[in-house]
Amino acid sequence: MKAFFKQKRGRVLAFVGLSLVVMVLASCATQPSPVEVAEPPGFFSGLLHGFLIFFTFIGSWFTDYRIYAFPNSGGWYDFGYLLGASMFLGGGGASAR
Questions:
Q1: Residue 17 above 90 pLDDT?
Q2: CA angle, corner 50, sides to 72 and 65, nearest 5?
């Protein structure tokens, strides 16, 4: 029984350590200065961009194209992006039975 808790504790510590490393690396990410845009991408653009995430990701390897539109309209774009990506990638419960 002691070995089980020791193994579980090691996994938790490894997860916490990995999470901290990922957060530190993510904190170094920057965005370019926003330029004045008459109409930034909104909900429907986010929905389309989320649905095309796989193709955009592959295209971003060969071009200077981003997966995520910048500047965007904020929360509505994010929500559309999340819905589009969920539809394309199968959602959370696609394989649940």
A1: yes
A2: 65
